[in-house]
Amino acid sequence: MSGRLHDEEFIAGLAAAHGTPLYVYDLGAVRRNLEHFHAFDSVRYAVKANSNLGVLRTLREGGARCEVVSAGEIARARAAGFEPGEVVYTADLMDHRARESVRDLRLHVNAGSATMLEQVASLCGPGDVTLRINPGFGEGHDEKVTTGGAHSKHGIWHEELPSVRAQAQELGLRVTGLHVHIGSGLEGHLVERTVESMGDAVALFAETVTRVSCGGGMSYPYRTTDEPFDMGRFASLWLAGRDRWSEVVGRRVELEAEPGRLLVANAGMLVTEVCGMKSTGAGGATFVLVDAGFHSMIRPLLYGAFHRITALGAGDRPTSPKMVAGPLCESADVFTQGKAGVPVPQPLPDMEPGELLAIHDVGAYGAAMASCYNSRPLPAEVVIHPDGEAALARPAIDPNQFLEREREMLR
Ligand code: LLP
To answer: How close is the Cα of 404 to the center of ligand 1, in Å?
Structure first.
């Protein structure tokens, strides 16, 4: 968290002006986060982490390219000013809408399967392509976000690379890029192994490769006690690989990083209004009930992910361990839960209805994964520009806006 996200009065003013639940993004922080990646030859932002136009524009202006995974993300990237040549489409297969956009814009594709290569060739004809490789192992903050290994649906299995090489040649595709992303929330134990396995791939595609992407996945310290990601070590291992490979292939290989989380996690806050409190008796729990739920931010429910929660304007009122729960008609609608739903209460003061809580570090995979479950709106999003000015960047989106049309369609 940084800048004006610290200013509780200012944040309370935004909540009063725009309603809650409300996402607030500090674009200055997004811009500063690019600094983490200065050692790499290029940075490609994974749009899925946060596709707010203000965020996308900020990263484009900071010099990043982008990676997209749907026709919707292509449209958002274009609206933020990314040129087609700055966009890479990653997929194991493409749906009809994506195929149209990729064909019309002639986007570079990062192919995660042999089928994808056929699709690319038939859509765009001969041209350049990147291969996403599953090196046979993976890592992540949760099993659900581990994207390498025999049980992952992602990427081309490393042992299939020789046959995929032959297939690409037959289809007239030049493999100019090699990409690996073994999971999200990496601690860095497998960097050496990953670099080594990319070295094998580079040797196989030595004639054509010009770019290697080490993917994203760098972890973010959500707890104040978490160690920050060791970018120095990560970058130096990959850069050493790049230098070796450049010698082997006889041309300069570009090393690209493809982060999502680390560029945006700390830049986002979810502001939610307290509706009341309740307790479950001796030995039980005390709940603060709020107007945000897992339809607004699903990471705790889905992964047991921790997000720090603080009371706005509560000063040094005494705190006690409390659970924070949302309004959905589902008992899993709790922000203070670990893996398998174990309660992980946080220290909070007693709260009155109308007071505000801030859920921190939700800039990555917060709004991006929100839903309209229980027919509730997607939260509005406010951006704080680097000069400190705040602006509504997207209003709340009410699924009931189509209610009249739905009624007509049923007639
Ligand atoms: N590149 C590819 C091909 C990816 O699939 C992803 C994330 C990234 C880059 C960026 O990874 P990051 O740097 O953000 O870890 N919803 C989950 C995370 C899912 C990540 C999906 N792919 C969460 O909330 O933790």
So the answer is: 37
